[in-house]
Amino acid sequence: MNSIAExxxxxxxxxxxxxxxxxxxxxxxxxxxxxxxQPVERLREAAESGQKAFGENYVQEALEKMAAxxxxxxxxxxxxGPIQSNKTRDIATHFDWVHSVDRLKIARRLSEQRPPExxxxxxxxxxxxxxxxxxxxxxxxxxxELAGGIxxxxxxxxxxxxxxxxxxxxxxxxxxxFNQLAQLLxxxxxxxxxNAPDTLSMGMSxxxxxxxxxxxxxxxxxxxIFGARE
Length: 230
Ligand SMILES: *Cc1c(COP(=O)(O)O)cnc(C)c1O
Description:
Bound molecules: pyridoxal-5'-phosphate
Order of helices and strands: HEHEHEHEHEHEHEHEH
Number of strands: 8
Oligomer: single chain
Shape: globular
């Protein structure tokens, strides 16, 4: 098995190559290390190799890791899992980004509970592109209304859109899904005047090249960095 430092290096090289193929500056793409279910020592190894942004799906697990890594400077924490109402205070207090917002009620609570001394919480709206009943995320037709509601919240900043298209899709379908999300972001931007959202959170270990080709600005990578989860 490769070390985490080697995996980060390889993943960074994949991102740079995909950016060059897409004619995009590589520095416009952020590597989010998805560290759910990984022991904190592996996150520390990544942090010591220079990784700053970490994505977590479970609040309690994330808070424990944040506490254990409080000596690592400038880490950025992204919440990417389903959000329960009773967890919004912990999320609003401790995270920098939330990618998985799909209800205005949740966004309102996050704004109300964001500590005043912290900068606005960065939010992405999660979109369900495959129309899967079991998946989180809103339908594409609902994006504009939810985005308008979030844009009015004082302590949150609407940054863009996130999707987890079904990894079982064939590559050409997957690429279409990424393209759909990019178009939705374009439509959303033209419907707003200030703080134009700039973020497309899409692409995982198996499909980051297609996501970057379609405009991803954050790729969420777990397995390719940390190996299989327990
Ligand atoms: C687990 C997870 C990932 C990472 O998936 P890999 O295939 O391990 O890269 C990305 N995004 C979300 C929302 C996840 O839950």
